[in-house]
Amino acid sequence: MEHALVVCYSHTGVSLRLADLLCSHTGWPMGVVTDERPRSGASGTLRCIADSLLRRQPAIRYEGPDPSNFRTVVLVSPVWMRGLSGPMRTFVAQYARRLHRVAVIVTMNTGGWENVVAEIAARTGPAPYVSANAMVKAAFTSKEIEADGFGGRLEEFARRLQPGAAMPSRAPAPFVAIHPGESAGT
Ligand SMILES: Cc1cc2nc3c(=O)[nH]c(=O)nc-3n(C[C@H](O)[C@H](O)[C@H](O)COP(=O)(O)O)c2cc1C
Fold this sequence. Notes:
This is Flavodoxin. There is one protein chain. This protein is 34% helix and 25% strand. Mean pLDDT is 87; it is low at 168-178. It contains six helices and eight strands. The protein is α/β, with parallel strands linked by helices. Helix 1 (14-26) links the parallel strand 1 and strand 2 (30-35). The N and C termini lie far apart (32 Å). It has one domain (2-177): Flavodoxin domain (Rossmann fold, 3-Layer(aba) Sandwich). The structure holds flavin mononucleotide (FMN).
């Protein structure tokens, strides 16, 4: 089984930029989730909002390696309406049974990452590694990504997933680099 796969959904490019940084520095491959029906313009944004409010699972395409061949899948998604983006919701719903261990990176403007982590944990549980507590997770703003590149918390996030890094199966959370300015272990 291979080590880690990064699976990204991005509407405006921020999450994709972060996933690119992560993959180019770690050598991990990337899978990409895209909308079957493109979300351009104001009507596309309205559909993002409606998908979120109604917790819909819009049709997607997934291009990339089979996630079941990887020990860890890092899911990278933007926050929408303080929750999970619709297309990543679809991916998680469709692939939950094929995911061994999940880690999560959320991109956002100001907040809402907790709900993203909670929904992914709920949809991928109850495997021991995918409770919200035990999950390796981090949230980034686009400003932080541009300022730090692959430095700081993103590098630390990747380090925590390297083979041999301590990964207790049932809490305490191994490292929670949640939010700019927040301390580890919270
Ligand atoms: C429909 C919609 C809802 C959003 N809701 C939130 C939100 O609740 N909290 C937040 O911090 N950012 C929110 N954002 C901003 C995005 O999460 C943020 O810009 C993200 O980095 C975009 O990632 P992407 O370029 O990969 O799509 C929202 C964006 C959209 C399009």
